[in-house]
Give the backbone structure.
Amino acid sequence: MSRPVSKVTEVLDRLRTEIVHGRLPPGEKLRLEHLAPRFGAGRTPLREACCRLVAEGLVTTEDQRGFRVATISRDDLLDLTRTRQQIEALALRASIQHGDLAWEGEVTAALHRLQRLGAPAKQGQLDEAWEREHGRLHGVLLAACRSPQLLRFHAILFEQSERYRRLAAAYGQPARDIGGEHAALVRAALARDAERACALLVEHIALTSERVLACYPGLLSEKVDKK
């Protein structure tokens, strides 16, 4: 029998989702007294959830002044992109080395589910089913790396990247054969061609970063926040 989800975990998951999805925008002050009735939770679980999100880089603390949604900037996105490329390539290389037939089947199934959904979204919109399967494919590709720490870092970096991508999507999404990118990446991984798979992954992440910078007007400046 599964254990019930704690209130802190429930609040943490919901707060993380609202930040990543842009419903709580960059720089927004997280006033616990306002969030409490909205989340149906007391200040204690909200404060604990905010502290955990500080560790994930989605929330920042202010000395004796509470919490804010982390701001975004061009420099942060570029740093995030480089770090994600390094971490995911390392995990993918290990996953290709250690992945068994079950892993191959999971990767193939994840790609198939994503392809069945077609294009990711119309301009200025997001398809949550596509977004969910997209994240699942990236996770499954790395799942056989045998390093919980790498997978934990990947999850944190992926969510931070998703926040940027979702914020930029509201301004449109330039033409891109993202389905072809995913298919080529999977083919290389299943062929156990680690060099090509890692090169494709690095390029895939770089293209996403370039599209975000091209679409989100605020990233032309040094920092974006909400006063």
